[in-house]
Amino acid sequence: MLSYLLLTAIGTVAARPPTHELAVRQVYDFPNPGSWLENLAVRSNGNILATRLDVPQLYQFFPLVPNSEPTLIHAFPSTSGFTGLTGITELAGHPDVFAVIASNFSEPGHGAVWRVDMRQPTPAVAKIAQIPQAAVPNGMASLDAAEHAVLISDSTLGNVWRLDLRSGAYTVAIDDPKMNKVRPNATVSVNGIRIFGGYLYFTNSDALFFARIPIHANGTAAGASEIVAYSVGNGSTFDDFAIDDDGTAYVATGNGNAVTRITPDGRAAIIAGNLNSTEIANPTSVQFGRTEQDRRTIYVTTAGGLEGPVNGTVIIGAQLAAIELPW
């Protein structure tokens, strides 16, 4: 999220597997340039919930229904003070109930986490907690059900918060140097986060790498962090990502207009999109499908070139794209 032309050069890159140029299918293109899809979560029925950053709105998409239009699930009123939505995650132990972050990017400390219950015909939306000490709450991941908590990356402060879903209490769970900015004037540091195999995986958009840190069940650090892979192309920023069952990550590569595949041993390669293409214009997040029909499909949200216009001039509407994986 909010990579904003972070073009810092990074040196050594791990050995790369062969590059694949996979086909990209557009599920939906917003007609208006200036729209920005920031993150997504896939429901068990195959529908997709996606947050918008340019306005505080949550949409539902129907990727398995050809030529379908998205529906607006919830729009926060202007009186709420929120200007956009960032992270979204399904709550462990509560199928079809999601946590969503709403923020005001001109007023740090205005972020709040909301519960969206999709189990009812009319989704129920209720505030979980305000997080005034967080500057820019961004990525989010759910801890195990017994913890009743989520982890939230703060892209300005360079740390990870733990929010108790029952009490609304929050505290810094992880404050690791690899989550910090490299340049003092950078906008975004730690960005996307996911929990897999006892580790919290994360991207650092300023430092241009994908990393991980072992964690305890409560989300606190259990050891030292390590870099898994660097961005593979000319300062292209890493954003949010999905992790396959074997530990392979598929990372939205923001101003590279691409998706990068990173194997568990750190080999990175672009598999779809490219710097000069609008097929995936400023991808922001990635998730796997959840039905038998699309389990080997990744879905990608985009900002349509708002982070950095394609070829320096081209801005299109936000996209929800689909890529079928051969692996």
Structure characterization notes:
By secondary structure, the protein is mostly beta strands. Helix content is 0%, strand content 43%. The protein has strands spanning 25-29, 37-42, 48-52, 57-61, 71-75, 84-90, 97-103, 112-117, 124-130, 137-142, 149-154, 159-164, 170-174, 190-196, 199-204, 209-214, 226-230, 238-243, 249-253, 258-262, 268-273, 283-288, 297-302, 319-324. It has a 4-stranded antiparallel β-sheet, with no helix packed on it. β15 (199-204) and β16 (209-214) form a beta hairpin. It is globular.
The helix/strand order is EEEEEEEEEEEEEEEEEEEEEEEE
Q: How widely separated are the two ends?
A: 27 Å
What's the Cα radius of gyration? 18 Å
Mean pLDDT: 93
DSSP helical segment count = 0
Structural class: mainly beta
- Main sheet characteristics: 4 strands, antiparallel
β-sheet strand percentage: 35-45%
Secondary structure: helix percent: under 10%
Quaternary state, please? Answer: single chain
Stretches where pLDDT is under 50 for at least 5 consecutive residues are 3-18
Shape: globular
